[in-house]
Every structure is written in C-alpha cells, then in structure tokens.
Amino acid sequence: GADGDVSFCQQGYLSLASHEGKKVLAQNHATQTAAGADIIYMHPPELVARFPWIDFDGIAAGCFGASGEGWIDGWSLMNVLRREARKNGAVWLNDEVTGLEVTNNTVEAVRLAGGGKITCGHVVNAAGIAARDIAAMAGIDLPVVPAKRYVFAFDCRETTPAMTAGPLMVDPSGFYVRPEGTGFICGLSPKPGEEPEPCGFDVDYSWFEERIWPLMAARIPAFEAIKLTGAWTGYYAMNTFDQNAICGPHPEIANFYFANGFSGHGLQQTPGIGRAIAELIGYGSYRSLDLHRFGFERIAANSPAAEVHVI
After folding, report:
1. What confidence score (pLDDT) does residue 270 get?
2. Spatial contact of 65 and 28, defined as CB atoms under 8 Å apart
3. Which of 2, 49, 222, 249 is deepest in the core (most CB within 10 A)?
4. Spatial separation of the C-alpha atoms in residues 129 and 151, rounded to whole Å
5. Are residues 98 and 112 in the same domain?
C-alpha cells in the first residue's frame, strides 16, 4: 500500500431506521457482519445510552460502525493514488477525449482534443459525470447522469466533545450530518422529481434552511442554535437505472470497460473497482471479488441491483 496521510477519522457511521426500514437495516447488518465488518446493531435504549445528544423519536433501530469505519480526505487519497500510479509507469495527459475509433466491435484508438491519437488494447471509461458522453462515442447508451448535490458547513453553539467525536449519522428522512473539525457538515439527497438543474456550481441555500435544518433540529436538539459557515456544490455520477456501480466489459465491445455510475459511493468503492478492472484486463477474470452482478448486462436484462441507502 502507498504511504500517505488521508486524514482518516475513524468515528464510524450511524445508520438509523424507522419501523418501516428496520427489516432492511437488519438484513444489511447480517451481510456486513458476515463479511467481517465490526457493525453493532442497536435498539433504542442502547442508542440513547451511547448517543445522548440525539433524539431517537420514531427510530426503531440503528447500526453503528464500531471500528474500521469513518471518513477520509478525498483529495489526499486521489493525490496518493496518482503519485503511486506514476511511480508504476502511468502517464498523465492534460487533454480531452473527443472520440473513439471502433472497428469490428473493438476500440482501436482514442482521439484527443489536442490533435493526438492513442492506439489502445483496452479502454476504461472512468470519466465520472462525463461517462455517458464517453460511452456514446462507442455507440453505447449508458444511464449515468450528473446529479447536483449541496454540502453545508455549520457551527453549533451547544456542541459537546462527544458530538464532535461522534459518527456520521444517516437519518431515515434522508439527511446526513457528521463532525468536521470543531463544526459539522450535512447534506440531503432530493426525492424523485426534486433534482436541481445539473449546471454550474451555485448553491441553493433554501435547501438548507427549508429542508435540512428543520429535520436536523428535530433529531439533534442542539442544532436549533447553529450558524452556517460555508457551502459548496458537487456532482454525483448517478446511475439512473439502480443507483449502483456499472463495472466490467461491454458484452459486445469486449475491450471497452466500465467503471461508472457510483452514485455518491465513488470514494468508497473505486479502489476495489480499480483492482477488479485490473484483474479483468490482466488475468481475464475477477480474482478478489466477483463483481459480475454489477456488469452492464443487467441493464439490457432489466435486472437492477438496487441501492437503498444513497445519501
């Protein structure tokens, strides 16, 4: 593994469930613990005892990552991975892909805006929110679109040390909040039909004032007295088919590989996806994890691998 400080805050995730969502939470817990994750399933009395600053009204259960879980600095991770890739011979070009040359169901070259052309044995589409455009160059309809998301930062007058050392909390209503330094950051994914227009990097502050803040203040009473300190906009590469990754080779253009549609899970999943794609190219098959379930074929077969927790 590469050496590098990615500012890992091992404070865990706390996923809460209403009575309607309790069954799915229990199923997820069983899957996670079977894979060796240190996840604790907690009933309301246990939740109240461990997280006394949270109001658990309407909560039937929660799952808390007791160890090995938290968040990191994504920019730092990207720089570590880029540095190690260069050490191993990767070449970085500051250019734009403008076309793919496809002959007999094989991508033979990649055309660049700077006028160059790269012949290739394999092409990996890892273009994030531009993934659909790249796929279209090979005649592929990829259901990945940019989804605009806001993140808000705030300070709380009644913050306690336990709160700033607490987990990232995911509420059944859809909002999430976690500590960030001495303050907090939060966000909320829109419901169907409420997606912001996917253009620019402007921030809609009414999203915080009218939607997130009332929900947070009801769940964490101390958040009734907070001060907004900043906000920014980013984009998810949203898989509109089932909100899950699309990875592996195209069934007809066999040297075209997908690493797309992570729908907000990119930082969590892409190290594993990168390894999986490398195994496919190097060995011709998955070796570490069998990710066939997330292949492009499921889209043509209308067989979604639905994700139920997108924040």
Report:
1. 86
2. no
3. 249
4. 18
5. yes
Helix (H, G, I), strand (E, B) or coil at 191: coil
pLDDT for res 2: 53
This prediction's pTM: 0.91
b/e per residue, 101-119, with b = 16+ CB within 10 A? ebeeeebebbbeeeeeeee
> For residue 34, is pLDDT > 60?
yes
Q: Could you tell me the pLDDT band of residue 191, with boundaries at 50, 70 and 90?
A: confident
Please state, in angstroms and rounded to a whole number, the distance separating the CA atoms of residues 64 and 249.
Answer: 36
In the structure encoding, which two tokens stand for residue 221, read together? 């009473």
Amino acid present at 216? M
Cβ–Cβ < 8 Å for 155, 117: no
Q: Are 198 and 238 in contact (CB under 8 A)?
A: no
Give the CATH number, domain containing residue 268.
3.50.50.60
Determine, yes or no, domain membership for 127.
yes
Question: Exposure of 165 by Cβ count < 10 A (0-12 exposed, 13-18 middle, 19+ buried)?
Answer: exposed
Whose CA is closest to 69, among 35, 45, 46? 35
How many structural domains are present in the chain? 2
What range does the domain containing 120 cover? 93-143+241-300
pLDDT for residue 201: 97
What H or E segment, with its residue span, contains residue 29?
A: helix 22-34
Distances 54 to 165, 171, 224 between C-alpha atoms, Å = 14, 11, 12
